[in-house]
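Title: Comparing notes on inverse folding

I've been comparing how different people in this forum approach sequence design from structure. To keep things fair, I'm posting one structure and asking everyone to reply with a full sequence. Here's the target:
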């Protein structure tokens, strides 16, 4: 997706330990026009796949997921990072946060992730795949089907992409970063 790649080249900032900051257009301030185009691209790439629900994890995945849900006319479910006392039929899993370097428990109500669901997971980044593996665990617990996973940015020098593709999961990443060393952003 050329528009996204150009924006990353222009406004992305690289940090130590392989972190790419895109705070000015995705993670802190968001550019809704760009995000809409990102969502259109996800909808185009997954048009051949049977999907009835978009799922994401709080918080950065919510914006793209909502726009994909709007374009595909499908409901959007957020996996939550805090466990509300009132959640019915809670499913939980543990995810390691790459950026915060800690484990946290995420949850989703089984009411909104059911056996007959075909789920498209949308998130901002694919790094080591921990969030995605947590999502796979929740999908398995619920008995739903994982139709595919879409990431705005995949960092190919970390392992997530390989782990997920080896599992046979359909992955679509709109921009793939091959290298961030020496503070140079190398986009495939
Ligand atoms: P993973 O679970 O694949 O290891 O990491 C993905 C999650 O960590 C994403 O949901 C994203 O929030 C965060 N993340 C991982 N790498 C980066 C990065 O380079 N930049 C930003 N802004 N977030 C990242």
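Reply #1:
Here's my take.
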């Amino acid at each position: 997706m050329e528009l996204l790649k150009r924006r990353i080249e222009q406004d992305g900032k690289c940090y130590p330990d392989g972190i790419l900051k895109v705070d000015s257009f995705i993670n802190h301030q968001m550019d809704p026009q760009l995000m809409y185009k990102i969502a259109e691209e996800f909808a185009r790439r997954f048009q051949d796949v049977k999907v009835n629900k978009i799922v994401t994890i709080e918080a950065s995945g919510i914006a793209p997921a909502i726009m994909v849900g709007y374009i595909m006319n499908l409901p959007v479910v957020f996996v939550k990072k805090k466990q509300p006392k009132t959640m019915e039929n809670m499913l939980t899993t543990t995810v390691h946060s790459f950026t915060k370097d800690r484990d946290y428990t995420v949850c989703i109500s089984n009411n909104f992730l059911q056996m007959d669901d075909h789920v498209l997971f949308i998130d901002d980044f694919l790094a080591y795949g921990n969030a995605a593996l947590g999502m796979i665990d929740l999908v398995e617990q619920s008995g739903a089907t994982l139709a595919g996973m879409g990431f705005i940015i995949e960092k190919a020098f970390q392992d997530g992409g390989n782990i997920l593709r080896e599992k046979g999961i359909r992955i679509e990443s709109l921009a793939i970063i091959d290298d961030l060393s020496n503070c140079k952003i190398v986009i495939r």
